[in-house]
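Bug: token stream looks shifted between consecutive jobs. Job 1:
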Amino acid sequence: MKSTYNIAVLPGDGIGVEVTHAALKVIDALQPVCGIHLQTQSYAAGAQHYLDSGDALPKATLKACGEADAILFGAMGLPHVRGKDGTEIIPQLDIRFHFDLYAGVRPIRTFPGLPSPLSSPKAANIDLVLVRESTEGLFYARGRGDRRGDEEVFDTQRITRVGTERVCHFAFKLAEQRKREGRKGTVTNVDKANVFESMAFWREVFERVAKGYPEIQSSNAYVDAVALNLVLKPWDFDVMVTENMFGDILSDLIAGLVGGMGMAPSADIGDNHAVFQPAHGTAPDIAGKGIANPTAMLLSVVMMLDWLADRHNDASMRVASRALERALERPFARGEILTAEFGGSDGTDAVTRKVIDELRALSK
């Protein structure tokens, strides 16, 4: 337990800057309510910084991230800013690999008071977490592509026993925690073991890990079938674990089940460091218009507070996490705010003000 936690803040590009600014306002309001102390410091990185300086991730920024208690991240990347190989400048991947942040955690749940894209009343029960292996898989090929003239390119997927074991253990431990909290306590392995030897190996490792968690029900499913069933009956899922690329795609799909990326927080967690960020991108088409939904970013702050609580055995962080979660949920439930993706007109500032007002009300 610490008296003050140092948070490295990387606003990044596009709406990342806007939702980060909103999160910092809320953090400032939260601290006196719950008696916690978070020292935030912003650092430069991203596609625009690359255009301005030629460096997408300065060494000073990376050093600060390594020394911080947690990293709060906006969004990075711009479609028109690309490297020599034609791919986007996205230093968030460099941060993941540098700090070995192997568990990409993408929780999704339905918020009371918000319209659901799904017609079934069971959609009110959506509450699941996708755990994405974030250091291997097809993303391992980034920067290692084998291009042979203008005829063909090879990108190689890498699946290791150690990498798969640790993310599977993470998923099962998360399922144990969720079961204690009253949720299903199940883990679904998502792969393509019928086609790829690498995925057959992944499944073999998953099943071996599963034997160590006899109280948790586990199952296997192919990624295409999971994509179908996530649309038809997402309320049946609890914890899912999958390879990097599959997780990248499915995390956007599950966000759509509850209204969009503005409701999708995330964390990339390793043994010693963690990054917390909204799952959405920089959305340059709406940047500067004040309409970005900051909810995903604020829920990422909730995840950060929970992680700090667990890591440092700090009950005050848990109290702060629940207070922020309630302050965000209640205005939606009462119909006091409705953002653009749900057909409303409340923008970044409106949501931020309402959450801060709710925090102040809770303190009374």
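Job 2, same session, no restart:
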Amino acid sequence: MRTLCLTFTLALSVAASATAQTVWSERVHISLNGAFQATTNDFSDRFEFERYLETGSTDVDYPIQGGFIFDAGAGFRFWKNLAAGVSVSYFTRDDVASTTTSVPHPFHFNQPREVTGDATGVKRSETAAHVQAMYLIQSGRRLRVVLSGGPSFFNVEQDLVTEVTITETFPYDTAAFGAAQKSRKKGSAVTFNVGADVMWMLNRTLGVGGLVRYSRASVDLDATASRSFSVDAGGVYAGGGLRLVF
């Protein structure tokens, strides 16, 4: 959010200091960006199971760190410096989730064994469509700024650990981690986005630019038919790439 506020302040300063802000002559602008999403969206889950006439449980910690994000969008100027557009962003990464399982003892009640282990290859992907109202600023021939905001539509796919298998031998006083079974779950949510794009035109059509956008959602995932929980998605990302105007 600090990065976003600084970017908006810079963009507004450019507009305020412009000696002659003009209406864009072009109708369409396109942006292609590589960016870094700095926001972390770690979450935890807990599920229970029945074994040896007792109830066991597994706690799972999912680290969802920041990473590379691809963003592409386009806008159409329909009146003076007002425009409308849409951008699509895609984020994906593989992480390792840590599990802690309390397994009942086959011979003794209330004497569970604790088993820890890692679930590898836990994948998260986020696809978001950002619908935007835009205000276009042109300061001189080369410098341009686009301020935008509107609704965002998130789709999240997340691998969830559904079962931990253990190995155990007589007298069963200890147990060891075997493997973690995973299942891909999907969820969607509607939220909002705000952003700023600062462009520097290299010629009449081609330019480069820097982008910062904030869009964060809370998405419900159905872990089972009877159990669901919410995870955070999105956040702040910043990057840059190519700009086309015509």
